[in-house]
From TrEMBL:
Entry-linked Gene3D superfamilies: YVTN repeat-like/Quinoprotein amine dehydrogenase (2.130.10.10)
Protein name as annotated: Por secretion system C-terminal sorting domain-containing protein
One Pfam family hit: DUF5074
Record flagged with keyword Phosphoprotein: no
Keywords, ordered alphabetically: Signal
Domain of life: Bacteria
Amino acid sequence: MKKFYLLTMLFLFAFFTNAQIKVQGVPRNDIKPSSTQSQAKTTTTTIVNFSDIQYWVGTGTNEAAFAVQWNDSKNPDALVWGFRWNGTATGEDMMKAIAKADHRFFTLLYQGTQFGTAIGGFGFDLNGVNTNALYKNGNVTYPYYPVDGIVNTSAYDFDAFTAADVADHWSSGWTTNGYWSYWIKDPTDPDFGYSGAGATSRVLQNGSWDVWNYNPNFSDFPISSTMTPVSPYVSATDFTNGYFLVNEEWFGHTNGSVNFIDSNGNVNYRVYSNVNNNQAFGATTQYGTIYGDKFYFISKQAADGGDTQYTPGGKLVVANAHTMQKIAGFNNIGGGDGRSFVGVNEHKGYIGASNGIYTFDIDNLQVGSLIPTTGGGSQYSGQIGNMIRTSQYVFAVKQSTGILVINPNTDTVVATIAGAFHSIVQAKDGSIWAVQDQKVVNINPTTFAKTEYAIPTTKYIGAWGAWNAGSFTASSQQNALYWINSINSFSSGTQIVKFDVTNKTFNENFAAIPGQTGTYKQIPYGAALRVNPVTDELILNTTESGYGAHFQNNWIHTFNNSGTLINTKKLNDYYWFPAMTVFPDNTLPSVSTTFPSQANANGMTSIDLKNVVSDGDNLSAAIVKSIKSNSNPSVLIAEINANDELVLTPLATGTVSIVISFNSNGKIVEKTLVINATNSTLATAEVKKLEFSIYPNPVTDILYIKTQEKVLQVSIYDVSGKLINTQFNNGQINVSGLPKGMYILRASTDKAVYQQKLIKN
């Protein structure tokens, strides 16, 4: 009897030893015998042929199929990709290549085990909404984001992970939820067979199949006979229809990001990171703007050292505004912290920093040098704030100094408007407006004269201490300005203020910020307020007062131009710290049909260009007009003056073709104008010689201009019509560097345009 008992025990031991299965090479005694039997079976071969596969990853002459079956009742369930290679490749190589290429697909891996890489989870973005991310043990504060399609862990803790988007495919497990079984088929195999080994040791053959089949709750599912070929990855987001929300992100944890709110109201999170394999911006991204189909993101610092999820992009990141694909990134922008950016022309931009303004070469993507006299002061007493480009100048706010007026042709400061300003905008009618603590200031765009209007009862909150772009904003559809009030110089109020530029009237209760009941109220954050240039709707972003976790609550409110709240959406809980809203730039400037194709110039002739061009999604008054080419400068001088007039000055009789460029926010259209010129114009200076004169003439070094009018611009041309850069200062021009010869001097004043022959000795 004892002998029989011993034999029985040995038989059972041998049975269970043989019945023990391996999951990716790991011996498992906890799998039920029914599953053990199931693993020994083959399944019905799938009906998908290689010719049916749509998304192929890799290159080479060998081909294999890769399928994932979630068994989660979400359709489509079983998905299949193709993989091409030369040489030797493993199942792990195939899986990683597909995860890196297809941004919808992601994995949870434990790499470096004695059995190779353990695959604990697969996910797939079914709806194109939200970001691929995982939560561990329900901790939504610290999500795990895939890099190259992979989230790594260092233990068999796969059961602890859940997907951030519950609407997507996601299954993971090892000991509790279930596990991923691995089925393979090579060309000579009649059907699929269960692989006890892992993907690391699986060597692919030309014509191989790998199928990952999830066993939820350790239940068995046969391999599906119907698999859905995955379509090639194309970004599902149309970045032309909606608006962007640039985020500071959580300092010490994540670098800056940008979300996109589409026309259907869906919030697409971290769209730049999704497109660029989890790259991000720098630390505390505070400013963004689109210019000429490029998106410029400015961060205060180059990187957040506490961010282990994203690759930092630097203080300046340049991306394609239509696709979000990265173009360039810069850690250094002249040694200062990043503040702002403005496009100057199609070749050049200006970077605002804590230590001055630097040029940026758009063509060659290079940070240039400091613009003279824009620096000075400490990081928090001389920093540059917002900048705007008008048709003639760049206006830049400098802390503790005022507003710097820069000639974009020479990159020189031509005037400084003194005052303690916070921000600056341009209204629909072209007027320039700056804001102080309790007044708005109108600045003449050509003479720079100031007119102040006191805000009746409230203040504008400044943001120089921890700089942000501020809520001061202008409508492109109405001649109106908006901002958020404050109860003092440090605390935001609860009202949106509207200023009627035409009538110079204030409405300090235009619209109320929602969420003002309860202990913790909604408060604006960052720039907080911007106006949609197409719909004229106001976009307001708020967070929750208090501290700590309260800042995980963030809202976006939309008001129509009557001040009525028409939509509210709440962002996913996270420390986004939204910085500012940016709107796409989709349309080209449009030149009116009234603009002539031919004109006569029988003497000095001017054509007003202010109202001949418009832009549907940008400020028409800010469109920059310039002369691109002149077919015969010895016959005609053509230039655009400070009043946006095309001034034609014949030098001889003949026909000239000029091309005028209209630049609206970096988008350009051109028009050709044929001029029939007759030389009878130089008498203009003689007629006005009592009002305007230059001396000495001939001149050797210093030329003086005498006039009772305010000189706005001085240009010197050589006899070929080429413009010579000049420095005009306090009525003097240093011409000592000019070669000897004859020149033509053109001077624009606030009353007229003058022209004189000039001889250099």
